[in-house]
Design brief:
- The protein is α+β, with helices and mostly antiparallel strands.
- Helix content is 24%, strand content 20%.
- The chain contains 3 helices and 5 strands, in the order αβββααββ.
- It has helices at 10-15, 55-61, 64-80, and strands spanning 23-26, 30-34, 42-48, 91-94, 110-114.
- The chain has a 5-stranded antiparallel beta sheet with strand order 1-2-3-5-4, with helices on one face.
- β2 (30-34) and β3 (42-48) form a beta hairpin.
- It is globular and about 35 Å long.
- 23% of the residues are buried.
């Protein structure tokens, strides 16, 4: 599979510090920041610093250190935001990929949403 990475996407620009963000957490391989248009009381985006288009791209090609760091960064954001099952009522983690997944930015990112009941993700087919 050819993963064409666009180094002019908004997250690449954030990583290069060309566009400001409200950082929640930064690690050696990951960056977490508040969504500009939050859909819930907690809405944080977590991105790897590497040029990965989607989670399958990341899982196939990232180093072990990147994968561990990114996974732990997600856990730490959830803890910091008080949405883990031990500190809150839970959260939703969403990662869109490709056209069918309605991915708007071609850089891997997960949305951490919480702070209120979020309802069903998809309507059931009738």
């Amino acid at each position: 599979m050819d993963y064409a990475y666009d180094d002019q996407n908004i997250f690449a620009k954030i990583l290069r510090r060309e566009i400001p963000n409200t950082t929640v957490l930064e690690t050696s391989h990951s960056l977490a920041f508040r969504d500009l248009y939050p859909q819930a009381p907690v809405h944080v985006l977590v991105i790897p610093k590497g040029a990965y288009v989607s989670y399958d791209h990341f899982a196939a090609e990232a180093s072990d250190a990147e994968i561990v760091d990114y996974t732990r960064a997600i856990a730490e954001v959830c803890r910091m935001e008080g949405v883990t099952l031990s500190t809150g009522e839970g959260f939703r983690m969403i990662s869109n990929a490709g056209d069918h997944g309605v991915q708007e930015v071609s850089h891997l990112h997960v949305h951490i949403l919480g702070g209120r009941p979020l309802g069903r993700m998809l309507a059931k087919d009738s």
